[in-house]
Amino acid sequence: MSLGGIALATDFALLIVAATVLSYAARLTKQPTIVAYVLTGVVVGPIGLGIVAEDQLIEIVSELGLGFLLFLLGIEMRFDDIREIVRPVGAIAVGQAILQAIASTAVALLLGFTVFQSLMIALATTFGATPIIVKVLGDKDDLKTLYGKTDVGILIFQDIYLVMALAILSVGAVDDLGEIAFSIGRVFVLMGAIGVVAYLASRYFLPALLRASAANKSTLFTVGIAWAFLFIFAAETLELSVEIGAFLAGLALAQLPYSTELKERMRPATNFFIAVFFASIALQMEVDQLLVYWQEALVAAVVLIVVNFFIVFGLFYSQRFDVETSFLGTISMLQVSEFSLVLGALAVDQGFVEEGILGFLSLMALITMPISTYYVLYNRRIYAAVEPYLQRLEREDTVQAQPVEFEDHAVIVGYSRLTAELADVLENAVEEVVFVEDRAEYVEELGDAEYGFIFGNARHGDVRQEANVSGADVVVSAAERTDVNLRLVEDAPDALTIVAATTDEEASLLYEHGADYVVEGRGLVAEELVELLERLDDPDAFERRLASLNDRARNGSPRTAADAPTGGETDV
Amino acid sequence: MYEVLFALTVIFCLAGALLLVAAERGLPVIPFYLLAGILAGFVIDETALLDLAQWGIVFLVFLFGVHVDLEAVRSQGRVSTAVGTVQASLIGALGFGAGLAFGLDPLNAVYFGVAGALSSSLVATSYLDERTGARPTYERLAESIHFTEDVLGVLVVLALSAFVYAEEPAVEQFAVAAGMIALALGVRYLLFHRLTARLRGVPEVMMLVGISFVIGFIALAEAAALSIVVGAFAAGIAIADDYPHSLELVDTIDDLEDFFTPIFFVTVGALLSIPTLETVGYTIALVVAVLVLNPLVVAFVLVRSGFDGRTSILAGLTLDQVSAFTLFVAIEALVAETIARSLFDAIVLAAAVTMIVATYTGRHAGSIARWLRDRGLVRVLGESLEDRATVARNLDDHVIVVDFQHGGRQVLEACSRLDRPVLVVEDNPTVLEAISEECDNYVYGDVLNDRVWDLARLEHAAAVVSLTPERDRTETVVDLETDVPRIVRVDGTDAATEFVERGAAGVIYPDAIAAERVGDDLEALLSGDVSREEFTRRGQAHFETPSEPGER
């Protein structure tokens, strides 16, 4: 043992620093960070500068990253989100998987790959890239549009497909056909067993467990991680792939109210680890392995983008989506996904294919992802350009966009006496009132109330997005952190914003950033006291005033008899 | 892979289970992590985790650096710096002497002294959670004393790395470290905002920038043969934690820290071995030093520098636990193989014991202070009042306002319009100047002290308004034996009912008051009675202080 523990990890450090620099550059060019990560491995690994080699720490962290990535994927699988469009989405997803697999296999065969290699390539290239679709559409505020929801729905179906593929690949290379069947059967039985455990846990055990852990900021996170590790470890022990264990662990948590907050808390660690994973892919590759099929990769990228466009567009159209939705939904999906690399890396590990195929997949990802970012970014402009040609496809009776979950609503951050009373006032003025609260003691109360409820901390972008803060009519926040309130005010520039502050400086700052009304407890209390003390010389009036003050303090809101929480928020 | 995965699974499952117990009872988490470590020690080989544990140290110290509020320290740190330094050097010297007397070699005696002297709970625990505005004087005071001690902790680590762990002990190390801190400050004020301006809304890249800072500064530290702790601290200083970085960078790194914290503390626990008699002896000595001597010394120095007895004792009581920095020092020493195994065990045990006891004393600090006052301790420490009270000789029919900081100032300003004399009772000497500017009558002191009420001419007062958020002070005000109506602040309906029954003439529940006023304004807006501009104007009117009409 020596103090040089971290010094030994120079490789790791260099990798992180390089990833930071490149992802900074990616940000400036609006590229998804994943492209930067993959490039990081290319630049610092044996292909480029050759200053970083894969060491044990990198290996562990990237393995963890993959596990966590699948865990988050599982958590994000909220069936409620796609229930209303599940039928068309399912049809598109299944059709796309089959048709694209056929097309990819054909293209790969034509390019001279062996049958086995072609099947591998087909298996790996049928996914849409979540980081691009979710990130770019999220930035464009398009996730709640019909095409955005459909794409996200398709991605969810693809996750299931991915887990199956992982399960099959994890069997490893075996020769005998009977053995293969046995191994695949074993994998699915074990997966099923873990799945049953996960399902039972999510019904009977996890709600109480998470409710208890949500009481403390670190506990929820630690318990969540422990849960993930338990499944990852079980999968590893049973010689399944750790990704499957992680995915099922996440799935068990997904339908619980705590999932968004937990997901957001896990995201930084996952992002950090996953950056290492993607960067490490190219670390194992030599130049010739990456470039051995570069011509094929170029051709395949172009051909598959074109062919897949027609496949997906046709599927969308056949499910009675209108032309615009079909077009926008289709071009978002046209790229090679990060999962291609996940599957490719696993296939190499298991000895199914050689490094060259992983290089081929990496190249395709590096070509299609950056390009697709731009056509997703400018999808509406592209559509405007091609619209005249597509016009004759227009028809009546298409799938209509369901109203998004929260619209023309009031978002209330923090449950307290103040916000409960304001909710009563607002109730009739807005479509819906949504509470955002991350203290566990109110979960049941808010879950039962007639209001919408999101468990989570408003500091997380995803929580604000889920509550659709930017589309809200009214935003009320009793959050103690001024930075959170500032962000809420900025997120909803047009909404009526009522936010709390403790000091005059904070209040001024919030007004400067556009808050409509700042609740500053000290000022309000002083006002009340002045009115009280004015009456000191008139004992009767003083008594009456005190009595009404005390009644208000002891009883709930006079606006309704409804139950108000008994804790205080406004600070004095 | 399998070993690491197994170790991580064991660590997180044990930590998760024990954290649930801790959360249930509201106990501090670190002792439970250590306990988890002791259990985990039976099944895992901790050397596999030392790498990750060092990352844990790095993140904890880094975060400490990030959260250092340089401006606040500059503005109110003088007293606390003195107090922290006096206490730490006194107990440190005593501990060093005691260590030598125990027969330890000088270096181990230093470790012993450090363990006894440094107290802090800031790293990894309460630092972020309790960022509420309504903080009593003693907490603010304690926070800056803790900060002083944490800085002393950094200095200790630095000194050890310069003189003990370095191959060639050298004073230049300090200059190098100072240079690194200067560089960090330069980055913070000149570069950081420019660098991150384009990363708004991309927490992912922000986080990587933060981690790269850590790695970069650690690399610098290693290149200069300094401890990585120094590098991590400098990296933290280099990062500004104001808005919007607080949301996108600092919170993200905090979440990451939650991953490494259990690993660090559980690993520490896993390194424990079965205690020998020697270990038990050291542990008892350390526990006595930390639980009894530290609070007493701090309380004594605070009283002598003008704080009232209650504030001094409460501030002292927050310091009755072994510092997380001590654990860093111990781990580094263990890795460098310079610490006696029994002493290492004693330090970890003492940390666990004191942290658990500290929860108890923290919860019952008010009654402990009262108990100590009744036993005459405050008098022994030398509390004095008279020189800090200014009361008009014939003050009559006045309103006594307890606690200037939590709304008292606004009441004062408002009362000046009412033509009613006001007297302020305050326990924070640092705001006395502000009080004396705004108000003719004030008494500095502790509400527990009857003398304070005599000086405040309670029997001649028209009303007492207590705005303190601290429950034990509120109770004291309600329980005063007098007919003067007492109006106290509460923070819930249950407390409101309780205090009215107990004799309070009135209760101020800020949230209920806010609900009424804001609710009225909102109703007026929604019903179309007022325009949106008028609504905003009403909101501003509530916080415009009457005496400063021009200021928004």
TrEMBL record, chain A:
GO terms for cellular component: membrane. It holds the Pfam family TrkA_N. GO terms for molecular function: antiporter activity. The chain crosses the membrane at residues 6-26, 33-51, 57-77, 89-113, 119-138, 150-174, 180-202, 214-234, 240-256, 268-285, 297-318, 325-345, 357-377. It is a multi-pass membrane protein. Residues 548-572 are annotated as: Disordered. Residues 18-371 form the Cation/H+ exchanger transmembrane domain. Belongs to the monovalent cation:proton antiporter 2 (CPA2) transporter (TC 2.A.37) family. This is Potassium transporter Kef.
Automatic annotation (TrEMBL), chain B:
Pfam families: Na_H_Exchanger, TrkA_N. One of its GO terms (biological process) is potassium ion transport. The keyword Transport applies. Residues 15-361 form the Cation/H+ exchanger transmembrane domain. One of its GO terms (cellular component) is membrane. Residues 399-510 form the RCK N-terminal domain. One of its GO terms (molecular function) is antiporter activity. Keywords: Membrane, Transmembrane, Transmembrane helix, Transport. Its main location: membrane. The keyword Transport applies. The chain crosses the membrane at residues 52-70, 82-103, 109-128, 149-167, 173-192, 213-239, 259-277, 284-307, 313-335, 342-360. It is a multi-pass membrane protein. It comes from the Archaea. It is found in: Membrane. Belongs to the monovalent cation:proton antiporter 2 (CPA2) transporter (TC 2.A.37) family. This is Sodium:proton exchanger.
